[in-house]
């Protein structure tokens, strides 16, 4: 190691040269009137089931808009995929690579870790970052997180929605008093995120809550479920991830805890979570922001126009209308409508990221508009504003009947007013820490 | 190769003057003077900065594994300790300059490294590797479990404060790259001095024959612990770069067993007991998958979906690594040496013939 380095130099130069060479191979600049969606997808690795479903649905909807309408007001939608395997470093690399293409509309990484690593950059590059159904809870406060949108549902609202649903099942929130709820959570930052929220809700409604950790990955839960059997709770909330979910359902069956008293959260609500559990999953109920099934008009159109022409993205057509696929479609609707709303203001052309951000901040789809989009019953509505980047998404609950999910509740509203002060406390602390000027929504609305 | 390395260390001392120093000089001029002017944000943030952080981690592990012969599978745990220590120092002691934070974070990592180095006094080989695995799992578990380390952030993922040194903001891509480069240069220089010193030779002696080392009067226990401490210090600093200069976010899951293996592979592929090896290995591990994926996408992107491409890239990468190692088991550093010598002989042969 002591006679280096002319060689190191030449090697590095060669690598650099090769690199720049491949950079030149990148697609040339997009033509006018295209809006580009960079997709940091994951089709490989432990979370591929979610990734293929979600990005498949997203791409299917974009394809539908292109083939059926010729794009949004004539502006064609384009996209390409960059594989992240759900790894943060790969997501960052994809971001730096894909952002060089012009006409970026919005980023949709579907990964909290990647989203966190992008928050600084999207602020600097002025492009919206969408984390539908997940993401950084305090980014709900758009006064601080101008470019980040945890659309439809953040983890806090999810917890409140679940408790509200249990309340309706018991015949009213006041009946929760004296009830016993166990939260079985994945031993990760994601799993632990809602611990203080369940405490808060327990104090407010007078039920007792016990929160039990399952260490990652969660393929052994005997002791947790034995202790649950001793506690005899009225409900178990399953805040799982991956293999932990079917194992929980199977172990519950083994210790004799009824599946219809287990309520799953947003990452425990897919076909991939219940099918491996077989019989044990029958009766299990889980929260969702988008109902599953392929009967909604927009899904029929996708099946006919996109898959009929052999342009569908899913390899397995049976997954059309599954939970992740429908989430991707709803995410597609939200993105496309934000572009459309922004086009109404700025003109029917390729928009800048900042203009699309404006579109997201004015993304208001009432139930009538949702019906016009062919998505009545698929999701309820959304109402994003400068101050509220989540947009008051409603949730519904689906029960697994052994073959498919069946909606068993109305559209339920989480208790946003209760959660807002906690969110603001956290977001304002972030603003202070990072020297961010808190926006004044009233002034912004007036100037627009 | 073990005896060889010793010989080389001793023999190389006299003639390390001209061409090598010239090469290093040129490299530094490019790294400090040219790249910051010409490189794009992509090159900085996706390639150069992670390359520097991983190379530094490889350098740290090379002291322990390459020089002192102690196998460790806990490298990313020490990176995590460094990253979290720097985050908490910056958060809780706001008056302290960041460079001091880095030093302290390195020291914290060194302390943790010492602790997990203790089994090395009794265990060696595979048994030691298994016990360092404990560090890997334990540290990750602690950061997951104890909210204090991540300032009770609800999601457990923390965003680090913007990087600035002595009031100079280094928050841009180029700034963060230069910062990482400065740290890596300084640490590499220090490591170079260390391995050329009697202590460095003591490390090699320990690796080559522990009993013999003891016989010639090397304080084996002290040297072992020193290797763990120095190695963890450097890996801890690499963790700080990873968190503050590269990702700007810290989460326990980012420092998993995969990362430990990655660092170990950097050292093995690059070349054990070689400073260049860490850099070559890191270059291969960081750059190669990206090159492959760009190439695959450009050539076949239209035909297959990204999942299929990704899988085939893994196969290609695995094959290439196997090929490299068969061609030269002592790593890329030795492979390059050999190629260079061959080229040099060929050139000088030509000259002799014509002259």
Automatic annotation (TrEMBL), chain A:
Residues 43-402 form the Leucine-binding protein domain. Transmembrane segments: none annotated. Residues 1-32 form the signal peptide. Gene3D superfamilies: 3.40.50.2300. Keywords: Signal. It comes from the Bacteria. Belongs to the leucine-binding protein family. This is ABC transporter substrate-binding protein. It comes from Azospirillum melinis.
TrEMBL record, chain B:
The keyword Transmembrane helix applies. Pfam families: BPD_transp_2. The keyword NAD does not apply. It is a multi-pass membrane protein. Its main location: membrane. This is Branched-chain amino acid ABC transporter permease. Keywords: Cell membrane, Membrane, Transmembrane, Transmembrane helix. It is found in: Cell membrane. The chain crosses the membrane at residues 20-40, 46-64, 71-90, 96-118, 125-143, 177-195, 225-245, 265-293, 314-336.
């Amino acid at each position: 190691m002591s006679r280096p380095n002319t060689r190191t130099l030449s090697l590095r130069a060669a690598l650099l040269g090769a690199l720049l060479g491949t950079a030149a191979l990148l697609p040339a600049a997009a033509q006018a009137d295209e809006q580009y969606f960079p997709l940091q997808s994951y089709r490989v690795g432990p979370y591929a089931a979610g990734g293929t479903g979600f990005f498949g649905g997203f791409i299917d909807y974009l394809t539908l808009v292109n083939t059926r309408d010729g794009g949004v007001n004539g502006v064609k939608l384009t996209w390409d995929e960059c594989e992240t395997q759900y790894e943060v470093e790969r997501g960052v690399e994809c971001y730096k690579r894909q952002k060089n293409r012009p006409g970026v509309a919005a980023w949709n990484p579907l990964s909290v870790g990647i989203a966190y690593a992008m928050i600084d950059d999207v602020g600097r590059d002025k492009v919206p970052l969408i984390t539908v159904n997940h993401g950084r809870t305090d980014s709900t406060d758009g006064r601080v997180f101008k470019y980040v949108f945890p659309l439809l549902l953040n983890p806090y609202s999810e917890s409140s929605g679940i408790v509200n649903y249990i309340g309706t099942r018991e015949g009213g929130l006041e009946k929760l008093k004296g009830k016993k709820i166990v939260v079985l959570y994945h031993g990760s930052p994601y799993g632990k995120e809602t611990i203080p929220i369940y405490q808060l809700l327990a104090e407010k409604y007078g039920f007792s809550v016990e929160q039990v950790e399952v260490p990652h990955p969660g393929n052994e839960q005997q002791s947790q479920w034995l202790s649950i059997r001793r506690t005899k709770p009225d409900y178990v909330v399953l805040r799982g991830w991956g293999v932990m979910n079917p194992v929980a359902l199977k172990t519950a069956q083994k210790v004799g805890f009824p599946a219809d008293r287990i309520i799953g959260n947003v990452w425990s609500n897919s076909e991939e979570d219940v099918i491996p559990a077989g019989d044990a999953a029958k009766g299990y109920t889980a929260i969702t922001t988008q109902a599953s099934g392929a009967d909604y008009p927009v899904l029929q159109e996708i099946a006919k126009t996109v898959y009929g022409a052999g342009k569908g993205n899913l390899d397995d057509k049976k997954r059309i209308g599954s939970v992740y696929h429908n989430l991707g479609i709803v995410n597609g609707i939200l993105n496309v409508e934000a572009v459309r709303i922004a086009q109404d203001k700025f003109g029917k052309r390729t928009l800048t990221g900042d203009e699309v951000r404006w579109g997201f901040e004015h993304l208001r789809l009432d139930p009538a508009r949702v019906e016009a989009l062919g998505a009545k019953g698929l999701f309820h509505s959304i109402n994003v504003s400068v101050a509220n980047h989540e947009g008051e998404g409603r949730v519904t609950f689906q029960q697994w009947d052994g073959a498919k999910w069946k909606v068993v509740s109305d559209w339920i509203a989480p208790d946003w007013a209760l959660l807002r002060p906690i969110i603001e406390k956290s977001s304002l602390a972030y603003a202070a820490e990072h020297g961010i000027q808190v926006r004044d929504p009233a002034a912004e609305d007036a100037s627009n | 190769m073990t005896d060889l390395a010793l010989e080389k260390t001793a023999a190389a001392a006299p003639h390390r003057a001209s061409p090598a120093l010239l090469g290093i000089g040129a490299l530094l001029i490019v790294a400090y003077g040219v790249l910051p002017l010409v490189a794009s944000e992509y090159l900085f943030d996706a390639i150069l900065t992670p390359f520097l952080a991983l190379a530094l981690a490889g350098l740290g592990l090379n002291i322990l594994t390459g020089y002192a012969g102690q196998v460790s599978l806990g490298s990313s745990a020490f990176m995590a300790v460094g990253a979290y220590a720097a985050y908490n120092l910056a958060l809780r002691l706001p008056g302290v300059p960041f460079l001091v934070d880095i030093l302290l974070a390195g020291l914290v990592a060194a302390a943790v490294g010492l602790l997990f180095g203790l089994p090395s006094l009794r265990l060696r080989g595979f048994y030691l590797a298994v016990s360092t695995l404990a560090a890997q799992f334990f540290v990750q578990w602690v950061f997951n479990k104890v909210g204090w380390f991540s300032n009770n952030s609800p999601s457990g993922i923390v965003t680090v404060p913007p990087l600035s040194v002595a009031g100079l903001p280094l928050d841009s891509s180029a700034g963060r790259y230069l910062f990482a480069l400065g740290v890596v240069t300084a640490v590499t220089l220090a490591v170079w001095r260390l391995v050329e010193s009697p202590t460095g030779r003591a490390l090699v002696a320990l690796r080559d024959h522990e009993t013999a080392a003891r016989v010639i009067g090397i304080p084996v226990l002290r040297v072992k612990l020193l290797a763990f401490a120095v190695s963890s210090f450097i890996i801890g600093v690499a963790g700080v770069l990873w968190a503050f200069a590269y990702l700007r976010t810290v989460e326990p899951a980012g420092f998993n067993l995969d990362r430990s293996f990655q660092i170990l592979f950097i050292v093995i592929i690059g070349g054990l007991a070689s400073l260049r090896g860490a850099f070559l290995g890191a270059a291969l591990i960081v750059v190669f998958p990206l090159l492959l994926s760009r190439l695959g996408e450009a050539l076949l992107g239209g035909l297959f979906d990204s999942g299929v491409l990704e899988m085939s890239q893994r196969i290609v990468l695995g094959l290439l690594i196997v090929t490299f190692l068969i061609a030269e088991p002592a790593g890329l550093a030795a492979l390059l040496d050999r190629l260079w010598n061959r080229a040099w002989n060929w050139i000088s042969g030509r000259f002799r013939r014509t002259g």
